[in-house]
Task: structure prediction
Amino acid sequence: MVRIELSIELRYDVAPPGADFVFNIHGAHTRCQIVQSEELTLSQQVLPQIYTDPATHNRYLRLSAQPGPLTVGYHAVVQLHHHLARPQDVHEVPVARLPPEALSYIYPSRYCQSDVLARLVMGEFALLPQGYSRVLAIQDWVRRNVRFESNTSDTSTSALDTIQSGRGVCRDFAHLMIALCRALSIPARFATGIDYGADPVLGPTDFHAYVEVYLSGGWYIFDPSGTAIPMGFVRFGTGRDAADVSFATIFGPVQSQAPRIAVHALADPLLRWEVPYRREEAISTDV
Amino acid sequence: MVRIELSIELRYDVAPPGADFVFNIHGAHTRCQIVQSEELTLSQQVLPQIYTDPATHNRYLRLSAQPGPLTVGYHAVVQLHHHLARPQDVHEVPVARLPPEALSYIYPSRYCQSDVLARLVMGEFALLPQGYSRVLAIQDWVRRNVRFESNTSDTSTSALDTIQSGRGVCRDFAHLMIALCRALSIPARFATGIDYGADPVLGPTDFHAYVEVYLSGGWYIFDPSGTAIPMGFVRFGTGRDAADVSFATIFGPVQSQAPRIAVHALADPLLRWEVPYRREEAISTDV
Amino acid sequence: MVRIELSIELRYDVAPPGADFVFNIHGAHTRCQIVQSEELTLSQQVLPQIYTDPATHNRYLRLSAQPGPLTVGYHAVVQLHHHLARPQDVHEVPVARLPPEALSYIYPSRYCQSDVLARLVMGEFALLPQGYSRVLAIQDWVRRNVRFESNTSDTSTSALDTIQSGRGVCRDFAHLMIALCRALSIPARFATGIDYGADPVLGPTDFHAYVEVYLSGGWYIFDPSGTAIPMGFVRFGTGRDAADVSFATIFGPVQSQAPRIAVHALADPLLRWEVPYRREEAISTDV
Amino acid sequence: MVRIELSIELRYDVAPPGADFVFNIHGAHTRCQIVQSEELTLSQQVLPQIYTDPATHNRYLRLSAQPGPLTVGYHAVVQLHHHLARPQDVHEVPVARLPPEALSYIYPSRYCQSDVLARLVMGEFALLPQGYSRVLAIQDWVRRNVRFESNTSDTSTSALDTIQSGRGVCRDFAHLMIALCRALSIPARFATGIDYGADPVLGPTDFHAYVEVYLSGGWYIFDPSGTAIPMGFVRFGTGRDAADVSFATIFGPVQSQAPRIAVHALADPLLRWEVPYRREEAISTDV
Result:
C-alpha cells in the first residue's frame, strides 16, 4: 500500500471577455484508489462545477473565469492499493469474452490510429505468444523506436506522426503503444497522472501520461516512456487518448504559466505504507 | 452562496470477530454542492472502499474493522449554491411529464406507506390548489399532528406508526411528510445531513433528516420538523427513506458511542459567503 | 437453452379526463435473456415512452390514455441461456465482499420489513450451514407456514401481514422469503414474469412473482410459491419489492379487465432448445 | 409522426477457426424513437449477447460464429416522434452551459481532427451570426467543397483526407461537418441509420451516416451528403465518429457479401402517420 501526497498549482492570465476551463486534475475515486483528503482552491470567486463521468470515473472541474489572473490549486492525499500478479499469470482476453465497456478501447481514436497499423503489428507481434509478455514486447518496441525528447511534439501529434519522427514525450509514447495494442485487438487506454519518481535528467516533476491495458479481467499499468515509477501513479483520468483527458481544456483568450507540481510518498513502515519502487510484477489498480 | 465546515467523529467498540460498516457521511457531489476540501481519518489500518451511487450520487464508505476501538473522522468544507424561486412560481409536475428517475419516488417504501394513506390525503389535501403551497400545507399538517419528542421512536418506526403515536424525531416527521406527498403522486425523497442552526432547546448539533420534493423540474428542500435552517444543509444522501441512507449500517457485534458533530458557516461578506437564515423563497440544490 | 413465446393483452376502460399508465411488461435485456422478437400494439393513437432503468435494466412503458377503451398488447419471443450450478458449489457472500449494487438488497423495503424479523431468523436459520441449502431452508419454511389461497391479499399486504395470516399468493410468498433472507444479510430481490408451467389447479396462466437471491457472484432464482417452473421464467423486472415492479401502475379513473396471457416454450430438439422442467441445479440468468 | 419498417440482411462466409462480430443494427430506444416490433434471426445456432450502452443507448449485438455461412437478419417497425423547431429559435449553447455529457463531443476524434481546423473555421465561420443558420452554413460549405462519389474512400479516410481529395460518401461528409463544428466548440456527433428516401441516382437503399449537432438543449439532425430525407432516419447508433458505431466490426477471417436492406414508411392518414418529406424546420429526435 502506498500513500501519495500531491499538490498542483495552475496559473493563468485571462484576457477579456473571460474564459471557460475544464480541468481533470482530481484524483479518480476507484476501489483501489482512495482520496483520503483533498482541497481545491481558486483565486477568483467563481462557482466551479465538479462532475464525475459515470463510465470512466474521471472527475472534471468546470468554471468560467473573469478577466485577470486565475490560480487553481489542488492538494490531495491519496491511498493506493495495488493488485499485483505474476506476469505469467496475466493473459490476453479474447474479443468474444471482453466486457462491453472494454470493447470501445480496441477501436481507433484521434491520436491512436490503430486501423492503419495492421501490417506493422502483423510483422512484429502477431506470432509472439499471447499474454503480458507480448504487451511488454510492444512496450519495448516503442522504447527502441522512439527517443524521449522534450518539445518535439504538440497537441496535434499522433501515433503515426511519432512513428515517422522517432521522438516524442510521454504522451506520444503512450499513444503509440496504445495504437499498437489495439491493432492486435488488445484493449488499451490512455491514463494521466503525475510522473512520480521522475527521471531527474528529464526535468522536474510534471504531469504524466501512461497506458493501461486490459488483461485477465483488469487494467494493467504500463509506462512506455519509462521515465517514472508506476507504483506511485495517482490516476486522474482515463480515456481513449489525450483528447478525452486533457489536464486543462481552455475556451477563450488565456495565457498559461508553467504549472507547479509536487508529489511525494507518505511512507510509514509501522503502518505498512511503502515507498514506490520499480517492481517485476504486473500492477493494476482497476480490477 | 454559503460555505459550511463540518466535522464528524464516530466512535465504536468492535467485539470479536470484527464487523463490517457502511457509512454515508461524505458530502454528495452535485452541481450545486461543491466539496471544497475533505479529509477522512480512520484509527484502524484498514482499506476503505468509497463508491458513488450513479443514480443518487450518494457516496458510501465501506470497511471491515478489526476487534477493538474504531474511530472514523470526516472533516469537510462544502460550498452551497442555492437555487431560489418565488413559491408562486413553483409548480407540481403531472405524472405524465415526470422524468423517469423521479417516478420511483412516488411509490411506497418501507417507512413511507403512501399506499394506505389515500383516504387521508383525499380528505385533507386533494382539493387544495396544486403547487408549492399545497406541499407547504402538507408540511404544516405534519407539524400540527406530530410533536417533537426525543427517544420516542426507533429504527422500525414508520409513517403509519407516527400518525398513531403523534410524536417523533426529525426522521419520523420526514417519513410522514414523504408518505403524504406520494399519496398525492408528488415525488418526495428522504435526505440526510446535519441539523445546521439546530434549535438549542432540542439538544446539540446532530445528524438530521429532511425532505426533498420534486417540483418545477428540481428537488425543493422542506424541513418538516422545523428544527433547523435549510439554507445550511449539506446533503449526504438521498433515498426513498431511511432504509436507503443510514449514516451507518453495521454488520457485527459493535457498541456505538455518541457521535461528535460540529458544523458552522464560513461567512465572508467581502466574498459574498452568507450566514444561512430562514428564507421565504423555495430552495433547491438539485435543479 | 430455452425459447419462450409469450403474449399479453391488457384491457382497460378509461374514464374522463383520461389516465396515465406505467407498465413493466417488456422482457428485460440481459446477457442471459435475449429478446429475439417483440411487438407492442396499442388500441389508442398515443405516443408511448419506453425507457430502460440503467441499474436494473427494467424496461418501462409510459403513456397517457384518452377516455375510452384501451388495449395494450405485447408479444415476444425470448431466448434464455441458463447458468446452472451444483447447489453445494453456491455460497453466500460476506457483506464485506458484496458488490455495491447488491448492498441495497439487504435493506428493508415497503413489503419486506426485514428489520423486525431479526429474532425469528436467529431462532430458525442462524445456526444452519451457510450457502444455497440455507436459502432453500428459508424457502421451505415459507412453504410450510403459508398456504396458497387466491384473493386473500391486496396491494397493501406485506411480509408481516403474511406471517400473521398464514396465507397469500405468489407475491406474498416472495415478499416473505425476501424479508427473511435480508434479515440474515443475504441480498434478495423481487422478480416478475409469467408463471410458466403454472399448476393447473391454481388457475390459468397469470403474471407471476418470484425471488432472486445473490449467491456466489450471481442472482439465483427461487420460486417460493412453488406453483411454476423457474426454467421457463422470462424476467420483466426486478426491484426491492412489488412497489418497484408493478406490471401496471395507473394514475386516474380506470376500470381494468382480466389480462389475457399466454406462454409456451418453442422447443426444438435439433436446435437444442429444451422444454423447461424442474431441475435439481441452482439456476441463474444474471451472473 | 412517422412509422418506418426496415429489414436488413447481412451475409458472411466465415473461414476457420471462426470469427467474432459486433453489430450495431438495432434501432436505438429513446424517448422519441419507439421500437414497436423487432425480430432478430441468425442462421447459426449461436447465443448472441445484446447490450445497451448506458451513455449513448446504442444497442450492440455480439456473437461468435462458427466456420461456414452466417446470415444475420433484423426486421423492425419503429415509430418516430419528431421535435420540430423554427430555425431562428434554435441557438448555440455556450461551452459554460453545455451539459457534461455533451462536452466530449467538442473534442477531436479519429476521423474528425477538429484540432487542426482552427484556422479554416476562423476564416470561414467565426464571424457568422451564431445559431442554427451558422451550422447550416457549415453544411453548405461541406456540400460545396466535397463531391459525392462512390468508392472514393475507405475505413481509414478522415475529415482531413476528405478536405484534400474533395470527394467522398455520406460517412466522409459527416466526418468533415462534425470536425468543422467541433473546431467552433459546437458539439457534433456521428449518427448511423438507413438512407430513407435515398437519391435513386446514387444507388439502392444502403446504410447511412449523418450528423447530430447539440443546439438549444437537443441534438438536431443534419444530412450533409444531402442524399436522403432526415425525417425518415431511424437511429441505430451515435458516437464520436465511425470508429464508435460501425454497423459491423469483425474479428477473424470473413468474407462479406453485399447487405440487403429495405426501408419504407407505414403511412396512414387516418392515424396521422405521415410519409417523410424534406422540411424547413429544424428536426430533433433527442431533446
Remarks:
- Chain B has a mean pLDDT of 94.
- Residues 86-244 of chain B form a domain with the C8orf32 fold fold (CATH 3.10.620.30).
- The interface with chain A takes residues 1, 29, 31, 34-41, 45, 47-52, 54, 77, 79, 81, 271-272 of chain B (CB under 8 Å).
- Chain B has five helices and 17 strands.
